[in-house]
Design brief:
Elements: H1 3-11, H2 20-30, H3 34-53, E1 60-64, H4 70-79, E2 84-89, H5 92-104, E3 111-115, E4 128-134, H6 145-155, E5 156-167, H7 175-186, H8 198-204, E6 207-216, E7 220-228
Parallel strand pairs: 1-2, 1-4, 2-3, 4-5
Antiparallel strand pairs: 5-7, 6-7
This protein binds S-adenosylmethionine.
């Protein structure tokens, strides 16, 4: 994508007005009911993303914004005992819930969790085979997204893969999506997410997009597979 079309795309993406501490407080508050609110609609989208990422035994995979931890379980099963999964999430309560889930699944030893801000990933350069994130990239403010993706590129090994699943401005833009954007604009503390151009943002951050598609829950969701160019 040319830089002209990149900036044109950014201009119709809403800004995120919440501070980090407001985001953390929001997810701490809703952690216990998150699955009740979101699982039914988001779960099929996440599953689609995990299929595209196709983690192999022995891989080292990072999940950014893992929430209650369902994908950590799937990633740990796919990477197996010779692999290692890493997770970072801003919310202490989400970390606690994910830890409990991993213990129940007897997978805690394969997964290392970190409570922190993904804008600065605390992992070594080139240390990950793959990165997964679902419904998280669209929580960052527009100017922050390239920084998060730069951080992802740094921690991926050459040729490493990334899958991002997120609310999208591609595809059919129906009434519900406009209502979501209106609510995000007027009540940012009620609705922190907004649709973005997921695959275009990965492309303009220097990733090679290998595959992308739009699936629909109540709004369009992009599922994007990209790789770090060697
Ligand atoms: C909408 S939830 C999605 C959770 C999970 N990925 C899923 O699909 O069910 C977003 C998650 O990202 C986390 N998050 C938000 N901002 C973050 C940041 N700056 N750094 C790391 N995690 C963040 C939230 O705490 C929350 O757990």
């Amino acid at each position: 994508m040319s830089s002209e079309s990149a900036s044109q795309d950014e201009s119709d993406v809403l800004r995120v007005l919440q501070s980090r501490s407001e985001t953390r407080a929001f997810y701490n508050k809703i952690a216990n009911v998150y699955d009740l609110l979101a699982e039914r609609s988001e779960q099929p989208m996440r599953e689609s993303g995990l299929r595209v990422l196709a983690v192999a035994p022995g891989e080292r995979v990072l999940e950014i914004g893992f929430g209650t931890g369902h994908c950590l379980v799937e990633l740990a099963k796919a990477a197996g005992p010779t692999g290692k999964i890493f997770g970072i999430d801003l919310s202490e309560n989400m970390v606690t819930l994910a830890e409990k889930l991993l213990q129940r699944e007897s997978l805690a030893e394969q997964v290392e969790l970190h409570c922190g801000d993904a804008i600065e990933l605390p992992y070594a350069t080139g240390s990950m085979d793959a990165i997964f994130m679902s419904f998280t990239l669209e929580l960052f403010d527009t100017p922050e997204i390239p920084s998060v993706l730069d951080s992802c590129r740094r921690v991926l090994r050459p040729g490493g893969r990334i899958v991002a699943v997120g609310l999208s401005k591609e595809g059919r833009q129906g009434l519900i999506l406009h209502a979501l954007e209106w609510t995000h604009q007027h009540f940012p503390n009620l609705l922190d997410c907004r649709p973005i151009y997921v695959h275009r943002m990965l492309e303009s951050s220097g990733f090679e997009v290998l595959d992308w598609k739009v699936e629909y829950m109540w709004v369009p969701v992009e599922i994007v597979l990209a790789r770090k160019i060697d």
